[in-house]
């Protein structure tokens, strides 16, 4: 059988690709013309992926170069292994895909495996991963509009769907229905409906959109937003949308109107929901560290480091002037710094916050306060991590001149898709010298606060 595949492969390379020809093991054994043919041409088969499959047959290992194309190569090998019934290769490809699965790769993987019955586990895992990172997956890229109806339906109806607001669910449904070329909210669709109709905007996906609207939990939307939706062109053109919005307004204004409401999931908060902790001003009481100090709203504030709801560590050993309690306290400290340490051959100074194993934060704002020194930070990053080892830059500061006084507060927004990625660990890490000539690699801050959507 291997000889036959080799023969197919090398002859296939020399032929132009015209039409798709589906090939499987049966063509060599069931009396078809290929059984007795000395030449079988496989069209639309990636030569590299085919070569990878043959290499696996000899070595028993999947050898992928660490390049941008390796992900696509792996998916092609998965399809080939399913097509030719190479079970061990199929299992190995599935294993690698699951290990590589992230919110950045979930859409292309889901699109590739949705048509392969033997990849049901990967398909379900992708749907759950997408649902748990819904904000990011529908904002960082619009690839989700290419998902099959069944997959998208499973995502928006998934019990683990985690989203910062129901408005995000509505926006995603409308974008999917329109096969949007850019990311936008319902307001854009509303404007388009001034001169168009749902039939023209959604085309063959119209009925699917109608069905998906019932998955939006309108009753947990703010009343102000519901009033806007009630007056929208969408509500005027789509009766089912209008009904759902009016029903939600009645619920918000008057409470439960029907006995079955309390059993309907549309009237319940999602199991995995975020609490918005919004930045108002420097040194306010709205951030994550303050919230943790109240045991998440249960009692009056105490230092969360002492209460052990938050853990703060530094790049240098604890000392009188490197005290983790200081950064979470509400009092000014004249001298508070983290000194440098050698990591991976480089000098690094940082303060790190762990919000706990049961919590995550989509950080969209943060505040620092300079200690009493004049060692002002100019080059540093705010980073997030799920495991405390692999870090993602949330905001990069290059020659930032904001801080120019001892004891000064300063705050910055986190913008872009990474503001929608949940993390457990956060750190402020120095990437260049401060303005202090004598100790340029001490990071001197006496207060840190994080804001965003907390789970």
From TrEMBL:
<feature type="domain" description="BTB">
    <location>
        <begin position="27"/>
        <end position="66"/>
    </location>
</feature>
<comment type="function">
    <text>May act as a substrate-specific adapter of an E3 ubiquitin-protein ligase complex (CUL3-RBX1-BTB) which mediates the ubiquitination and subsequent proteasomal degradation of target proteins.</text>
</comment>
<dbReference type="InterPro" id="IPR008979">
    <property type="entry name" value="Galactose-bd-like_sf"/>
</dbReference>
<dbReference type="InterPro" id="IPR011333">
    <property type="entry name" value="SKP1/BTB/POZ_sf"/>
</dbReference>
<feature type="signal peptide">
    <location>
        <begin position="1"/>
        <end position="16"/>
    </location>
</feature>
<dbReference type="Pfam" id="PF00754">
    <property type="entry name" value="F5_F8_type_C"/>
</dbReference>
<comment type="pathway">
    <text>Protein modification; protein ubiquitination.</text>
</comment>
<dbReference type="InterPro" id="IPR011705">
    <property type="entry name" value="BACK"/>
</dbReference>
<dbReference type="Pfam" id="PF07707">
    <property type="entry name" value="BACK"/>
</dbReference>
<dbReference type="InterPro" id="IPR000421">
    <property type="entry name" value="FA58C"/>
</dbReference>
<dbReference type="InterPro" id="IPR000210">
    <property type="entry name" value="BTB/POZ_dom"/>
</dbReference>
<keyword id="KW-0732">Signal</keyword>
<dbReference type="Pfam" id="PF00651">
    <property type="entry name" value="BTB"/>
</dbReference>
<protein>
    <recommendedName>
        <fullName>BTB domain-containing protein</fullName>
    </recommendedName>
</protein>
């Amino acid at each position: 059988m291997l000889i036959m595949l080799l023969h197919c492969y090398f002859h296939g390379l020399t032929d132009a690709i015209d039409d798709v020809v589906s090939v499987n093991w049966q063509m060599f054994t069931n009396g078809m013309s290929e059984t007795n043919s000395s030449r079988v041409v496989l069209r639309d088969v990636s030569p590299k992926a085919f070569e990878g499959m043959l290499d696996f047959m000899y070595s028993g290992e999947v050898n992928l170069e660490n390049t941008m194309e390796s992900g696509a190569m792996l998916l092609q090998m998965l399809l080939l292994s399913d097509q030719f019934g190479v079970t061990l290769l199929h299992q190995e490809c599935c294993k690698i895909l699951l290990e590589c699965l992230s919110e950045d790769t979930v859409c292309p993987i889901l699109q590739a495996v949705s048509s392969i019955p033997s990849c049901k586990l990967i398909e379900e895992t992708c749907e759950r991963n997408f649902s748990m990172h819904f904000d990011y997956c529908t904002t960082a890229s619009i690839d989700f509009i290419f998902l099959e109806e069944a997959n998208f339906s499973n995502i928006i109806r998934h019990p683990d769907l985690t989203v910062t607001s129901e408005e995000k669910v509505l926006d995603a449904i409308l974008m999917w229905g329109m096969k949007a070329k850019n990311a936008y909210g319902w307001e854009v669709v509303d404007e388009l409906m001034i001169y168009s109709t749902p039939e023209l905007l959604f085309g063959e996906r119209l009925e699917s959109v109608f069905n998906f609207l019932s998955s939006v939990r309108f009753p947990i939307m703010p009343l102000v937003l519901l009033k806007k939706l009630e007056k929208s062109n969408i509500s005027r053109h789509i009766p089912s949308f209008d009904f759902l919005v009016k029903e939600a307004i009645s619920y918000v204004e008057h409470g439960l109107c029907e006995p079955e409401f309390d059993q309907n999931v549309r009237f319940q908060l999602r199991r995995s929901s975020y609490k918005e902790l919004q930045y108002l001003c420097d040194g306010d009481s709205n951030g994550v560290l303050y919230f943790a100090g109240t045991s998440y709203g249960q009692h009056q504030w105490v230092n969360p480091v002492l209460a052990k709801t938050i853990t703060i560590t530094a790049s240098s050993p604890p000392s009188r002037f490197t005290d983790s309690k200081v950064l979470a306290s509400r009092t000014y400290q004249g001298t508070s710094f983290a000194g440098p340490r050698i990591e991976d051959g480089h000098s690094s100074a940082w303060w790190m916050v762990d919000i706990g194993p049961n919590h995550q934060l989509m950080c969209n704002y943060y505040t620092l306060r300079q200690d009493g020194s004049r060692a002002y930070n100019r080059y540093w990053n705010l980073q997030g991590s799920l495991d405390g080892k692999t870090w993602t830059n949330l905001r990069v500061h290059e020659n930032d001149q904001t801080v120019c006084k001892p004891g000064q507060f300063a705050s910055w927004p986190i913008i872009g898709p990474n503001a929608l990625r949940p993390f457990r660990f956060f750190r402020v890490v120095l990437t260049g010298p401060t303005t202090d000539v004598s100790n340029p690699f001490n990071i001197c801050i006496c207060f840190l606060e994080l804001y965003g959507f907390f789970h």
